[in-house]
Fold this sequence. Notes:
By secondary structure, this protein is α+β, with helices and mostly antiparallel strands. The protein is built from 1 helix and 3 strands.
Amino acid sequence: MPNTVARITEISSSSDVSFEDAVSVGIERATKTLRDVTGAWVKDQKVEVKNGAITKYIVHLAVTFILDD
Length: 69
């Protein structure tokens, strides 16, 4: 197996539905720009609240991708 070098970039994404959906939205968008995405972890999550109800789920992701040679 050849040696590889990866980079980690941080992104934020949101959803009106759930944290899980916010993660999916973020990964889907990241893979449109970044090649060879190998994983991600949720660094932080929060909600926006308006009039006592959750209006938005927000996640901060650290996305790992392999650098091209």
